[in-house]
Amino acid sequence: MSTYRLNNLLSPRSVALVGASARPASVGRAVLENIRQAGFKGRFGLVNPRHAEIGGLAAVKSLDRLDFVPELVVVTAPAGEIPGIVDQAGRRGSAGALIVSAGLGQGPGSLQEATSAAARKHGMRLIGPNCLGIMMPGVSLNASFAAHMPGAGNLALISQSGAIAAGMVDWAAQRGVGFSGIVSIGDQIDVDIADLLDHFAMDHKTRAILLYIEAIKDARKFMSAARAAARVKPVVVVKSGRMAQGAKAAATHTGALAGADAVYDAAFRRAGVLRVSDLRELFDCAETLGRVESPTGKRLAILTNGGGIGVLAVDRLVELGGIPATISTDARGKIDAALPPTWSGANPVDIVGDADAARYAAALEELLADRDNDAVLVLNVQTAIASAAEIAKTVTELVAKYREQHRRWAKPVLAAWVGADQHIIQALSSAGVPNYPTEDDAVRGFMHLVRHREVVEELSQVPPAMPDTFVPDARGAREIVTAAIADGRQWLEPVEIKHLLEAYDIAMVPTYAAADVEQAVTYAKDIFAQGGTVVLKIMSRDITHKSDVGGVVLNLTTPEAVRAAATDILARARKLRPEARIGGVIVQAMVVKAKARELILGLADDPTFGTVVVFGRGGTAVEIINDKALALPPLDLQLARDLIDRTRVSRLLKSYRDVPAVKQDAVAMVLVKLAQMAADIPEIREFDINPLLADETGVTAVDARVAVGPPQRKFAGSGPANFAVRAYPSQWERRLELKDDWRIFVRPMRPEDEPTIHEFLRHVTAHDLRLRFFAPMKEFTHEFIARLTQLDYARAMAFIAFDEATGEMVGVVRLHSDSIYETGEYAILLRSDLKGRGLGWALMQLIIDYARSEGLKTISGDVLQENTVMLDMCRQLGFEVRPDPAEPEICDVRLKL
């Protein structure tokens, strides 16, 4: 997540090209010509040891012979020369290099390793190698070998494929779409997707970010950067390899269901990234997001001169989850007065095939004024009666007038002129009206806007609080798992699984492990005595799916039946799987719930994103039914509900006919508990509960499998090393005793703290708020507070303090690390009526301890000169205090750790 020096690379004031070639068909010559033709305004120099002049421009033999220090060095030289070039650039003081050349290899001893080492020595940043280059229209820089230079605009494109980036440029040239920047990242030996997400998220010229991804290297870094970016602007991704499956064969149902692309899908959803399926849809997203803001709702009014195409648009809208807008009584009356009686009278507003520009204008004006819709789609099918170009001209003029009148917010207007000439497309594009070749594309474009608004709302939701009654026995559960690993086992025994589930308050049917037939009969008698029936299952570490060997017998009601069934199960297993280790049989109480739903829940391990939670329809045919959804942990109740809602079986959890609804949140709570278990015990590799029976009384696990092994550290930093999204760091909860026996409870902030924050701010004076935010704060919106409370616990941390006696919030301290995890910026706010009692000092010491534990090197902050109390405390804590040279009223405070 490093934006360090990225601005120097993407908006340089000076550039040197090393490896420019005199050969017309070479990469070096193509990059040279593109830089020249783009009209880069800064200083530009050529470096080539064999040519004194290329294409009419003078060249020097080496970087140290340039009469200026290039901020950016563009390299198209042969691979073997690149480590030396980067080292030379670093010695001269260059900020970074763009390496277009390929062939550096990978691994120890490679040219790539030598290049990275040279860059690190001088603090340089590297883009590439093996990439198309960068195109930054805002600074007239085209350091690429693409065929065209895009115009300036508000879209950023980050692509792992040079060909995709070049294709986007060609498409944009035809559609009049501009870019704030296009970066082809190549092999990502330094600057990666997450770094660029951070950069463009903070770039005020960028309205939306488009991604083409083949694979993600650092999942935790990507998730943190993508989530932060998606909060402030749309992030749209198309990923190749959707049909690729995971490399390893899965031993559990959940492992089989968690295919590689399904995990990527879950990750994008968790990060708030909009996923599209192909380049055409990515183009549509670019067309929409680059021109208009998201609507406040999803009610679409459709204006058309063709009934058929209007109905097709409505069909697609409903299919994608949109709502055909109603026409208000007032708007219908005005349209009736302005149009012939042949118009449809409803949405779609079909104004008939002979509609001219005046008829379009009359209808569109009323739809724009109608509050019963959130956006308008204008469709036109060309006829010999009315000029399509004249209609487009009238529509664009009316839209421009409407936007001028509604500068603060105007509802989106989209268009599709079917079979339109290029000049009509250009006219619509020039007017900033998103336009598409078909009604299907246009509706999809509208729904991309809707989905972005929903994503922002989801990212700022306040999840329900976890029940205080759920306190897992993590220590006892961990002992079960570690004992199995110490015993050299990869799978837990059934009784161990039952105890593991009990430790997390997940009900399971009575389960016993019988070493032989007679012990099975003894256990069965206990179950019969309680009025139950019995199921027997083969117990073997080597037989993954018991039913495959006839290893399950149901509905046993007598000791004799149990004896016969156990004998038969053991004999059949030994015959069909003679190599398998047979430990006996599992004896369970058979749960017969005629109206219960069979579900599957579990944990799977993904090589990129670590632990994944799986939910779906259970039973023996889970892979065939394939009704499942995935999510990245940790989960809260809201995320668990969303996971459930993404399956077809979720509909069966509601009541229907004489079947009562499943107990509210019973299934969701099990998912939350499983996610917590994965955080507490990273030694759990895979976990299968199949089936979990759910009905109006609650849930019961019938069968489960748990694979264990030594924990694998997939991700650096604190928190569960198997989670791509860092979990709530409960280890940082503290109880403090301050002056006058004042007892304080401090814990990391949680999303559900939003109402608490609002109440706390009522007890902070306007003066103290200005000292904290450097400006008068009259109101705090839901969006503002939600952004403060939604922490990823990776780059951002906040500790919230409560008075133990009253339960009221009394203070908060925050730390946000920089993009390279070296410096953290702090902020602190206390209740104004409780200052001077030692709380500020205690919270500052806590955040310093936290920063040290995270490996940060420095804590910094900005403090107003008039905030003398804070400045005095900083000095006492060892901070260096210096006036900010750019803003004299502010002091920069800095503590080296």
TrEMBL record:
* Matching SMART domains: CoA_binding
Q: Which residue ranges traverse the bilayer?
A: none
Q: Which domain of life is it from?
A: Bacteria
Q: Name one Pfam family in it.
A: Acetyltransf_3
Q: Check the record and name the CDD domains matching this protein.
A: NAT_SF
Q: Which UniProt keywords apply?
A: ATP-binding, Ligase, Nucleotide-binding, Tricarboxylic acid cycle
Q: What are the protein's GO molecular function terms?
A: ligase activity
Asked whether the UniProt record includes ATP-binding among its keywords, one would answer yes
Output this protein's name.
Answer: Bifunctional acetate--CoA ligase family protein/GNAT family N-acetyltransferase
